[in-house]
Amino acid sequence: MYDLKLIKEVYDTMEQRIASARKKLKRPLSLAEKIIYSHLYEKNNITNHKRGEDYINFAPDRVAMQDATAQMALLQFMNAGKSKTAVPSTVHCDHLIQAYKEGKSDLSVALSKNKEVYDFLKSVTNKYGIGFWKPGAGIIHQILIENYAFPGGMMIGTDSHTVNAGGLGMMAIGVGGADAVDVMAGFPWELKSPKLMGIKLTGKLNGWTAPKDIILKVAGIVSAKGGTGYILEYFGEGAKSLSATGKGTICNMGAEVGATTSMFGYDESMDRFLRATDRAQVADLANSIKENLTGDPEFYDSAEKYFDKYIEIDLNTLEPSLNGPFTPDRCTPISEMVNEAPKNGWPVKIEYGLIGSCTNSSYEDITRASSVIKQAIDKNIEIKSNLTVTPGSERVKETLQRDGYLEPFEKAGAQIFANACGPCIGQWNRPGAEKKEKNTIVHSFNRNFAKRADGNPNTCAFVASPEMVTALVIAGNLTFNPLKDKLINRDGKEVMLDPPKGIELPVKGFLNNNPGFQAPSKEGSDIKIIVNPKSDRLQLLDPFAAWNGKNLKNLKLLIKAKGKCTTDHISMAGPWLQYRGHLDNISNNLLMGAVNAFNDKTNSVKNSITGEYGEVSKTQRIYKKEGISTIIVGDENYGEGSSREHAAMEPRFLGVKAVLAKSFARIHETNLKKQGMLALTFDKNSDYDKIMEDDTFNFTDLDKFAPEKPLHIELVHSNGSKDTIEVKHTYNNQQIEWFKAGSALNVIKKQK
Asked: Which residues pair with 557 in a beta bridge?
């Protein structure tokens, strides 16, 4: 399924492009820089880009989409006027399968419930030359690293965890659907030149410590927004000691610190993984240019000189950690949980432990966790909490079954869910969640925002490695430390759990009897795409209106969001995933999770017309009907989390004109720009406090909108007093054209 011709073309030109970049910059290069300069849209335009300032146009090698975001991306692509995608592209059906009982029955329910969407995706992919991975085949990021990712390549994907492919030395970046449309339509993909954060790993993992603990540690150091605008590049002997899938875990969760992407240089572990996944030819090609697939030694030797930020972690002394609750960057070493849990009022009784997901579902991950649960059986230990397992792909699942590693989980009464995202994205029909009781769960996923897994705002979710999750499930207690604590078995004897043992790659090789891939038609011009106008799942898109060239006046405040406001808060997943292809219907969840700064409630905002409080979307629909434009005000790192562009398209569709925040997450800021909205930041964060509930907003100089030139907004308060605040933006000339035209897609349509 991988495109060997494409990979050869990339490798054939890398040497010359890297040499030109070295000559221009007059210094050694990092791995990130080698891939950047090998993928410029204007191939010979080698310039010394200012990190964090200059915009760069790229030519990615491929595009990947998951089924929830693919719907809107492909609805937009249908309006781009193209007969085929310009680069290899794939769609992966993994988000719409709800975990409830077990994999087979849950998949059957999903196939029936989502038939309309799956049929639409199959027909669109068939028409436009896009590969289609059927429901049950696996999670997008596992399919990508097992089949398509290659060292030194560049891929964009409509999911923030596309970065998982960095474990195989690829520059993989999460984007919104409009960015994917650009590349599929043959246009350049634009990104602000990332800064570089070097993370040197020394020593070697041992005992209970896993690759997951490395990124949990990094998240604790960097914070949820500290990686914004950075590429995280890992190097050192410790990095080389990790498996390719272990590296993928680390890269995957780099999204939780806001990083543009994360990556490791090519090494023997990647060679082993490529060969184990039937890509020996790719391994041979990579080995022939391996010095170009990692950073220059001179760069790493002077890391503190060349990287914008530098961190060093000793794997010999690294301790297993639990991150959470409610944020993935609150890192608590396992030895400290015994004090931290009671101090913070976290329930110590664990109700559920969940392992798997795109972050930790490799063969190595599950074999290590299996070795732990097997000990509970062999040592006659009662398992205190519920356990679930979510395999990452059918290839891994059937291999684990053949090799006997799922059997201990089944004996322990664990639920084996479908090869899909499931609970990690809120697709979990958890019994009793509707009671909203305060409780604790532990999982090996990547995110743990409020309501994320089960819809219960009172669920305290902690992120850990699969083997640590398994140990905690056996003990049933959040404060259990398997490094030193003993358990009492059914015989009344004290026993300890031995450190986990796993296998990097299957000795007998991977099975691949049912990959679930559908190749597209070679000629799709006669294929008709039919969308029922009465459908509540799919809706054809109408272009957004162009800007009239005048200053925006008399805007009302929709909401002043307080604290963390992720894309989950702006456009919830879970049951709302079924409407991802219907912009009108999904807009009913707009900002329902955001906390209103004026009443500390969610989904409750003041209607300036009636003075009454109501749901955010209903209030905004009233404003739209009355022809009243609005503005959203946000706190720090607004739009943190997933790549879902619905969080930008919903407010645009309902008539919101601008979002003004203290700071933005990268992907969300870009999505707002792509949809023709104003994404603005306070010049002084203290001006956030000047925003009152009944304010009217008047832009005074939007008619002079220009790069690097601040804008000004007049705040008219209800008592008649006024304040004028200065706001900043990061729009360049091209992005301003998107705003003027009404969206980036409108610009593409003019250029076709």
From this structure: 631
